[in-house]
Amino acid sequence: MTPEEFRQYGRQVVDRIADYLAGVEQYPVRSAVRPGDVRAQLPASPPERGEPYDDVLADLDRVLLPGVTHWQHPNFFAYFPSNTSGPSILGDLLSAGLGVQGMVWATSPAATELETVVVDWLAELLDLPAHFRTDSRGGGVIQDSASSAALVAVLAALHRASGGKVGADGITGRYTMYVSSQTHSSLEKAGRIAGLGAANVRSVDVDPETLEMNPAHLRALIEQDVAAGATPALVCATIGTTSTTAVDPVRAIGEICREHGIWLHVDAAYAGVAAVCPELRWINDGVAEYADSYATNPHKWLLTNFDCGVLWVADRRPLIDALSILPEYLRNPASESGQVIDYRDWQVPLGRRFRALKLWSVIRWYGAEGLREHIRTGVALAQELAALVAADPDFELRQHHPFGLVCFRPLRTDALELMERVNSSGQLYLTHTKIGDEVWLRMAIGSPATTSAHVATAWETLQTAGKRISPGRR
Ligand code: PLP
């Protein structure tokens, strides 16, 4: 593709994206295609000869768009939001255009140094402790996901708990880590990948009402494991669990970790970015004193398209020591000078995209003020929805909804049937969770396109659908 052809198609693509975002409401939120529908319309083999880019764009409309679920739709309330925004898309486009691979400082100094600046900026915006900043012992790094952040936290914790032996000898003793039934599955997966074994990923009880981790049970499990000869390596506390946005008591958990020298990882993948607002900073109580690592995802609720997860550590040494291997082909004077950061040592892959560009674009475009407004709008809309649910005797509201997620359940109809009915209508999209044996519906608000009117209409749609389903079934 010549630069002129690129210019021509590039304009078309940008126009299409702008049209798409402006008109996203015309699409059914959840794709209605059946398994295999998209694939069946695509040739089984690649073309022998290059094709005009117009044909690629035509297939986007004809084949792919019907198979797209519209995450940027104002009525997308499923899972957690995965927002994008103009500046984020432009930042990612620039990253693709520059085609930089920033595995070490020397392979593109700006990629590393912008990342350092941006993760420090975000730490400041979220009022995270000074020791998470790069000019201290700690620092931040952009990962592809909170799952990767969890994995490297587990590896660093194992490194520290074993005094570096795990890296040399593999896991020889019994190391344990602690999660709850509400912890995201990526922590258990990280334990598995790290070779801990399922039995050593211990599940701490939660309070049956609030679903917060029970510190007394955590202490009991740790003491039991230590008495049995195990070495506890990591505890994960969650700020904003995936199921209901429960907030674990980080301070109480941290005190126990401190007593036993255990690494405390805080998973704030969804809710952490809410701390741009001073009134929501209570969520981080105990983080400054006790957290060894902290992860949050701008790619969920901070207008930055997937993928962009940020991990901070209070002390970068165990992380780097756990992950750094220096083959001859990566040696270079800058790395050897000790004056630069090589973020390849802070993550699993070697290669790194220039992800900082999109986060930088977002922070510069919106400013702290704009980011706060975005979070406050999501929280306010969630409060509006909660009030609508509370006023309807056919539904039960879950009282905890400090962020953008509201959980509720229908009292006279089957929750899953109701959910499927509205989801298949294409008008809105929501998902569910289970608390004990009860199914609860989750509506997560967070798209910058969602307004009060969308929330009110979504609620009416649910009410009407509920009335159409035969009563008495739950
Ligand atoms: N942790 C929590 C609390 C989450 O809610 C999620 C995803 O929803 C994750 C971790 C995993 O995030 P990622 O997709 O970035 O790995």
Automatic annotation (TrEMBL):
Molecular function terms from GO: aromatic-L-amino-acid decarboxylase activity; pyridoxal phosphate binding
Modified residues (N6-(pyridoxal phosphate)lysine): 300
Protein's UniProt keywords contain Lyase: yes
Gene Ontology BP terms: amino acid metabolic process; antibiotic biosynthetic process; carboxylic acid metabolic process
Gene Ontology cellular component annotations, sorted alphabetically: cytoplasm
Cofactor(s) this protein cannot do without: pyridoxal 5'-phosphate
InterPro entries xref list: Aromatic_deC (IPR010977), PyrdxlP-dep_de-COase (IPR002129), PyrdxlP-dep_Trfase (IPR015424), PyrdxlP-dep_Trfase_major (IPR015421), PyrdxlP-dep_Trfase_small (IPR015422)
Keyword list, A-Z: Antibiotic biosynthesis, Decarboxylase, Lyase, Pyridoxal phosphate
UniProt keyword annotation of Lyase present: yes
Family statement: Belongs to the group II decarboxylase family.
Protein name per Swiss-Prot or TrEMBL: Aromatic-L-amino-acid decarboxylase
Organism field: Amycolatopsis bartoniae
